[in-house]
Design brief:
Layout: H1 6-18, H2 27-31, H3 61-67, E1 77-80, E2 85-89, H4 103-107, E3 111-115, H5 132-140, E4 147-152, H6 154-165, E5 170-176, H7 184-199, H8 201-212, H9 215-220, H10 222-233, H11 237-254, E6 265-270, H12 278-287, E7 292-296, H13 303-306, H14 308-319, E8 349-352
Parallel strand pairs: 2-3, 2-4, 4-5, 5-6, 6-7
Antiparallel strand pairs: 1-3, 7-8
Keywords: Hydrolase
Protein name: Alpha/beta fold hydrolase
Organism: Streptomyces malaysiensis subsp. samsunensis
Length: 354
């Protein structure tokens, strides 16, 4: 693994500081897909505030979907198991195999659909300017009724948009390692990584693996770290950059509208995730009515690979299908026990919004 990206990233940071306004390729193309005005039915009391730095109030995502529904593409996907419908969405640069370690436990109690998002895996390419609304519409086209939606990283942003655009299809939301309402410093950091991907895609992939894997985990499972790296390097570069643009910017457009999500929502992240931080999961839990946050001690970003059993237990408890969840328990209420796949670990910490 690359052990010292400091010199390269320092140079990138200087260039970002000098040319922040022109940094994000495709920004003009995607700006029009984000909200621009409050919905006509919103009164002054419930109209969301402008996001920081916004020059116009965002448009209701649900209204945008009704006014001009995006044309979905046919996503590559597979289904396993039987039971209530559940769909798994991966992060930028990865594919549906991210969920392989969680699948046996989830498919024992759900009909699980694993998806390659647009621009990833075996699904069609993503064009420059692809929007979060389009990625969500692709997933919606696969769903035939209320579905428990589990999204990781970029997939968590897609899940939030799906919850706003198609509440009829979202039985619950589990937001794994999700960003939310990035600060100026956090936004600068993701812009730096975006610029690194533009300038040196290979170095960007190596740097991601270095962020995601602790030295101890990488030493324990070097083959897994190499597999994740190979997945990143196999991406179509144009599709990756188009989807990374969504990942880098969409949280700002979502933020004003999160209080309108009606589905029971859980946000879960690793204690040591430097990009999708515990503070972000707490923000989501506070912003979404009835939301709750779970922080997994000692874990980094790749929860589906690093602690799959605990994550699967959390998901099943949230959907009401965990073996320790009593019949009739309200979705989102956890009554079972949690176990870690790593020795010496501890249960996750929770916070709730009522």
């Amino acid at each position: 693994m690359v052990s010292d990206m400091g010199g390269f990233e320092a140079g990138m940071r200087a260039r970002v500081a000098a040319s922040r306004a022109g940094l994000r390729p495709g920004a003009a193309a995607t700006a029009g897909t984000e909200p621009s005005e409050p919905p006509p039915e919103a009164g002054a009391a419930d109209a969301p505030a402008d996001p920081p730095g916004a020059s116009a109030r965002p448009e209701d995502p649900g209204r945008a979907a009704r006014a001009g529904a995006p044309v979905p593409v046919a996503l590559s996907h597979e289904a396993h198991g039987d039971g209530p419908e559940l769909v798994l969405l991966h992060g930028v640069g990865l594919d549906r195999h991210l969920w392989d370690r969680c699948l046996p436990a989830l498919a024992a109690r759900h009909r699980v659909t694993l998806v390659d998002l647009r621009g990833h895996g075996a699904s069609p390419a993503a064009a420059a300017g692809v929007s979060l609304a389009e990625l969500a519409a692709d997933v919606a086209a696969l769903l035939s009724g209320p579905t428990h939606v589990v999204g990781f990283s970029l997939g968590a942003l897609v899940a939030q948009r799906l919850g706003l655009d198609r509440p009829d299809l979202t039985a619950s939301l589990t937001l794994v390692s999700s960003v939310a309402d990035r600060s100026d410093e956090e936004r600068a950091a993701v812009e730096l990584r975006q610029e690194l991907a533009v300038q040196d895609f290979g170095a960007s992939a190596w740097a991601a693996v270095d962020r995601w894997f602790s030295p101890a985990w990488r030493a324990q499972e070097p083959g897994l770290a190499r597999q994740v790296l190979d997945t990143l390097l196999a991406n179509d570069r144009a599709s990756y950059l188009a989807c990374y643009q969504v990942f880098a910017t969409a949280d700002a457009g979502l933020w004003p509208w999160l209080p309108r999500i009606a589905a029971p929502t859980m946000a879960v992240t690793g204690e040591r995730d430097p990009g999708s931080t515990p503070a972000m999961s707490h923000r989501l839990a506070e912003r979404i009515p009835g939301g709750r946050a779970v922080i997994v001690p000692g874990a980094r970003h790749l929860l589906p690979l690093e602690c799959p059993q605990e994550l699967a237990d959390l998901i099943l408890a949230h959907t009401g299908t965990h073996p320790g969840t009593h019949t009739g328990t309200r979705p989102g209420t956890h009554t079972g026990t949690r176990s870690r796949t790593r020795p010496g670990s501890h249960p996750g910490h929770e916070s709730h919004r009522s």
